[in-house]
Design a protein that fits this description.
- This is Glycoside hydrolase family 3 C-terminal domain-containing protein.
- One of its GO terms (molecular function) is hydrolase activity.
- It comes from Paenibacillus tritici.
- By secondary structure, this protein is an alpha/beta fold.
- The protein is about 30% helix and about 20% strand.
- The protein is built from 22 helices and 30 strands.
- Strand 17 and strand 18 form a beta hairpin.
- The longest helix is centred in the N-terminal third of the chain and has 18 residues.
Amino acid sequence: MLYKDSAKPVKERTEHLLGLMTPEEKVGQLVQLFGWQTYDHTEGKIELTEDFKRQIREGGIGALYGTLRADPWTGVTLESGLGARAGAEAVNTIQRYVLEHSRLGIPILIGEECSHGHMAIGATVFPVPLLIGSTWNVDLYREMSRAVALETRAQGGAVTYSPVLDVVRDPRWGRTEECFGEDPYLIGEFAVASVEGLQGDRLDSATSVGATLKHFVAYGSSEGGRNAGPAHIGKRELLEVDMYPFRKAVEAGAVSIMPAYNEIDGVPCTTNQELLEDILRGEWGFKGMVITDCGAIDMLASGHDTADGGEDAAVQALTAGIDMEMSGVMFGGYLLEALRSGRLDEQLVDQAAARVLELKFRLGLFEQPFADPDRAEQVIGSREHAELARSVAAEGIVLLKNNGILPLSKDKGTVAVIGPNADIGYNQLGDYTSPQPRDRVATVLTGIRAKLAAEPERVRYAPGCRIKDSSTEGFELALQAAAAADTIVLALGGSSARDFGEGSIDLRTGASKVTENGLSDMDCGEGIDRMSLHLSGVQLELLKELKTLGKPVVVVYINGRPIAEPWIDEQADAILEAWYPGQEGGHAIADILFGDVNPSGRLTLSLPADVGQLPVYYLSKRSRGVRYLERDSQPLYPFGFGLSYTEFSYSGLQVEPAVITADGTAEVTVEVENTGSRSGAEVVQLYISDLVSKVTRPAKELKGFRKIVLEPGEKQTVTFKLSAEHLSYIGQDYKPVVEPGIFRIGVGRNVTDTLDTDLAVMEG
């Protein structure tokens, strides 16, 4: 049959197949079920459920979500879940049944969560995107994305629901950890790298998966930092800031996009035709598939209250440009009814089904729907990928403060490793993480012990307290351990670990204990938004007790959102911001603590001194205001900030030519020298200010960055090319414009520390 002929063009194959399909089969392609509910796994065998078999026989299912996902939400555990080979074999069982028992043999689209690694048992757990952004190394992230694609496709996953391209505006939001940061340009660079890494050179390759951009759009601008809250944002800012990373990813070839839960100016993104059709498909030329977030269509009828019941919600979504529903509750239940009653035009169903089918053809699923169990065993969780995870973590950890205590000596001195995040593996992995064997995650304690393995007596440990619990019973043991040490490494912060059945920690001995009523440490992650940015529980109190010993204290933050504790910034001898550094995070932290790695992470969020300063992101207008009664409005640590164990100097900033036309180009050059005694990496950052404009502009905007490595005494000339895209903004008519005038060009180590010169733009 023509649609099975791989030599034919995708469009021709799609049209032929669509012409053979019944309304039931077309609607079936728009439905995505929860994959883990389609089979039973008992005694090492996979048995498909009778309900799933029935649905396949009666018209089919377009896709499955999270077939290999394991976490407390799915109820899939280490014991009941599927390892590398078993997962691939389970996908093959599903695909084989679909091909053999559906009328037309249309393969299932397997979609998986892969924000920082495939969310399946045994897969490599990389650092969260907030740390990835802090590397400022898009090449490294592209390499990581290739590894994630390889692990996912080896098990049969063909599409991933990543990258997250939301621009963080209020870090109280629990999903801050899933984002690259607060700046649209930086996010756009990582967006392109993600698409290139995940999708590779060929989408139908055995090492590629389709990228789904989410959450479109303004999800990170929610009211009060509350998840899925309304976004109060003007059209100009929407186009310039929140939409920018999505547009760059679409231009890079992303094949799928997911609208956000939130509303913008009263219109839910799920039914926003201007977003999905006029801008995304019309202006940007997006040709891929649009899939909802889980339960988003249901929210229209019970949440947003813009639909009168399920059928109305389903019809509204499809009409606005939705092609597939994650969870399938509404599309599967109501679209056929709407077709039969004449409320829904079948042409809209055809259009959506065609987009789903085209994606399946492009992914090569009709030619190769099956996973490779042997390859899955070889690549999933490989040593090579673990080493890559360690490298990513090491490049993204940010040194915020150092009074000279770091790096620590590997040859002498004892270290007390204290704190609730010193030896709890799940606390450093972040949300959207599968269950892990304890020995799979290198904690801070693990990393330091490995570094000093020849002299284990030099390391002492006590947890001190939990993340959220108010108990101080562990303080005594912590103080004893610290009193016997020369240096205290205190691992504080937060946790996005859901209840994995790990139970609790004995604060008096530091040992793990499994109980029926384990305490949750979770204070971050999806749906966990906060009113405060202070440390939870008695963590600050623990540090104050330890400081009475007069010992040097190195604070290591492991967390998914900024922490605002000015006392710690004043009193700690050194501070590392490690975010959630993934399975190799403890080794990466130890590499930095002991100087085997020179820290090169730089902040992609402005860190406030107090929650009352929010919003504190650097892309502020000049009219924002200067200060509050209590203090100024500036962040404690600015965007782009990060220290090193060496020093870098900037000189010779030049712009050539110094005068250009609006469609011209210019080169910015600067000399950067390592003036210290250690090899190190510097992030050279380019900022632009439009000094006079018809529409108010941010005081500074990031428009370029380079991460370079210099040996002591080495100099390098760094060059940036400026074009109309860098100098333009969305004008009064909501179209890009480059206005004649003076632009200030700043190059330096962070947004507040730059060399500056001017560029004049003349009429063309």
